[in-house]
Amino acid sequence: MSSTSYPQHLQDWRGRFIANLAAALARRDDVTLALWAPPGDLPACVADAATPADALWLARLSAQGGMAHLLRTRRALAAGSILSLLTRLGRAYRRQRADVVHVNWLQNALPLWGTRTPALITVLGTDFALLRLPGMKALLRSVLRQRRAILAPNAAWMQPALEQAFGDVAEIRPIAFGVDQPWFDVVRPAPADNTRHWLAITRLTKNKIGDLFGWGEGLFGQQRQLHLFGPMQEQVDLPPWVQYHGPTHPAELLQTWFPQACGLITLSRHDEGRPQVMLEAMAAGLPVLASDLPAHRDMVQHRQTGWLAATRDELSQGLAWMEDPAQNQQTGQAARRWIKDSIGSWDDCAGRYAAAYQNLLEPKA
User: Fold this and answer.
1) What is the pTM of this model?
2) CA pair distance 247, 231, nearest whole angstrom
3) What are 260's strand-pairing partners?
4) For the segment 185-242, what is each residue's pLDDT rounded down to a tens digit?
């Protein structure tokens, strides 16, 4: 498995879903996993596929904010980093014996060119920005033609576009990520006072913030508070009514914030796939108020498991609707049931991937 993101420790927010997936795959007795990723605490039975030099380089890349951040903010530096990534990852694919390669992010599939190892390639929402680059689809098609491949978007809304671009050279099979059990175990007691705490958990970029600050002006204050969590990855001016807490981690959200929050809010305009924080909030019984994007419509059923807003008035209506105590509990429980029934745990996710690995190894009919 290859990834350019991985948490360095338990309080690190970066690549948390990769660590969860690797741990779930390692618990299976039919998968032996080697991981090429930035250095961090690897789950038991997962081998480290990165050389010491690769690990040092990946650690520097991670400290710089990752490849996507470099492309947004330091394009001159990003060009050299992309070349180094492709070179190092190409060597890793050839050095590590594997029945199947599991690639996270489409860019990490390019160094497979010239090999024939079957590949499962996880596709995330940010990959669609890559596909808009001139010639990128043609390059990826040349890589896919050389092997049996499954493109696995983590949400079904991405399937039609991938079918159109790659359906003749690869199988397109949506595979949802999972959610850890502690999120399902969150208990949300009745509020102790009349203060409503809303959470926004996101990397701070203009597209990830979206309309939150513009629409939120006048809607948030002392009685209805907006608590913002996440790393500052672009220079974003914070309004005085926003309570900014910096980056967070799962333990802080589980123990402190999710139990007391009224809901999670995201008005992102980013290329979202299926945001993991939304899955975890819904599993915790926390209603979600989200911008009306394809990725959010794929997760949130309006007025059933959350609220979708396309205007400031709709945001205002959604806040009032979800702050009714009975409605809040009902919506949160409906969201939790949907996650249990439709998404499941990380072990369920690992089972879906293991079945796909096996399919790649079966003789062609």
Assistant:
1) 0.89
2) 5
3) none
4) 999 988 777 899 999 999 899 989 999 999 999 999 999 999 999 999 888 999 999 9
Among candidates 2, 6, 3, 14, which has minimal Cα distance to 40?
A: 6
Kind and range of the H or E element at 122? strand 119-123
Domains 16-178+345-361 and 181-342 share a fold: yes
- Sheet containing 242-244, strands listed edge to edge, beginning at the edge strand earlier in sequence: 242-244, 224-229, 196-201, 263-266, 288-291, 306-309
Classify domain 16-178+345-361 by CATH architecture.
3-Layer(aba) Sandwich (3.40)
| Tens digit of each residue's pLDDT (9 = 90 or more) over 26-63 | 999 999 999 999 999 999 899 999 999 999 999 988 87
Q: How far apart are CA 35 and CA 92, in angstroms?
A: 10
| Proportion of the chain in helix, strand, coil states, percent, rounded to 5 | 45, 15, 40
Cα separation, 34 vs 21, whole angstroms: 12
Architecture of the domain delimited by 181-342: 3-Layer(aba) Sandwich (3.40)
Residue boundaries of the structural domains of the chain: 16-178+345-361, 181-342
